[in-house]
Design a protein that fits this description.
The complex is a heterodimer of chains A (210) and B (69). Chain A is mainly alpha-helical. Chain A has helices at 2-51, 53-71, 75-130, 140-165, 169-189. Classes of the chains: A mainly alpha (210), B alpha+beta (69).
């Protein structure tokens, strides 16, 4: 019984060494997995961040978490986390590509339509500016406000086109949306018909009672 | 205004921003000009925009669809 007592510390040492050896055996695979994860992410990061920034942050956090585990010596956890990242990157790349295609389609429609609205507004403003009187729905202040709105819209439209030319589709779309809203506002002030594609969505009907 | 609403969104191009007016009984280009521009003397702007369908600014027909620039 006495001799067995001496065996216990030895057993602990053996187990400890075994665990250290196991951990050390995960170190290299974990380092390689983190490197692979970073490489897969860096290859597509620019596009993914541009189109789905919120989801892109998830990948950034996952890489950071894997690295933190690695630094703490939690190589198994680091390995598990890092191994999952390339699949997530692949998934987000597809989502970003779909989002890009959707935005490109919307931009194509918008860039064909908005200039028509702006041209129609300019034509009406030119005539109203030459008019000795104004129609009943308009006074001088409203007309001046409409002119200011038109100028702001054309300026922003130029910025939207520049953003598109610079490859920033999301920014171009956001600016284009603002131009559309401004153009609708001006057309409404001038008593003009708003094209169906630019008309604000009708408010949802109230739920029936009872 | 009812004419304007009727015309909204018609046609194949949902972005078409052409402004339309459907001629009603008793209307002249001057009256239409006054309605949209406040000034009847600007009727020639409407005539010029509709030269493909109007030959004479004094001759417009009920139901005729005119562009209002």
């Amino acid at each position: 019984m006495k001799s067995k007592k001496y065996l216990i510390p030895i057993l602990f040492v053996v187990i400890g060494l075994f665990l250290v050896a196991c951990a050390a055996s995960s170190k290299e695979p974990a380092a390689a997995a983190i490197k692979a994860a970073e490489e897969s992410w860096n290859a597509v990061k620019g596009e993914v961040v541009k189109y789905i920034p919120d989801q892109a942050k998830g990948v950034e956090d996952a890489i950071k978490g894997a690295k933190e585990n690695f630094d703490k010596g939690n190589f198994d956890a680091a390995l598990a986390a890092a191994k999952a990242i390339p699949d997530k990157v692949k998934e987000l790349t597809a989502v970003a590509a779909a989002k890009k295609a959707e935005l490109a389609k919307s931009w194509e429609e918008m860039s064909g339509g908005l200039p028509k609205m702006l041209d129609a507004i300019k034509s009406r403003l030119d005539i109203l500016s030459a008019s000795k009187k104004l129609p009943g729905n308009l006074d001088k202040a409203k007309l001046e406000g409409a002119k200011g709105g038109y100028e702001a819209a054309t300026k922003m439209w130029d910025e939207a086109k520049a953003a598109f030319a610079g490859g920033n589709l999301a920014d171009a779309m956001a600016k284009g949306k603002t131009v559309k809203e401004k153009a609708v506002e001006v057309m409404t002030t001038l008593g003009m018909q708003v094209p169906a594609a630019a008309a604000p969505a009708p408010a949802p009907a109230p739920a029936p009672k009872g | 205004m009812a004419d304007e609403e009727k015309q909204q969104g018609t046609g194949s191009d949902a972005w078409d921003a052409t402004q339309w007016h459907v001629v009603e009984k008793g209307e002249t280009l001057s009256k239409i000009s006054k309605k949209y521009y406040g000034d009847p003397n600007l009727y020639m702007k409407i005539f010029e925009a509709n030269k493909d369908v109007l030959k004479n600014p004094d001759l417009i027909k009920i139901g005729q669809k005119l562009r209002i620039p």
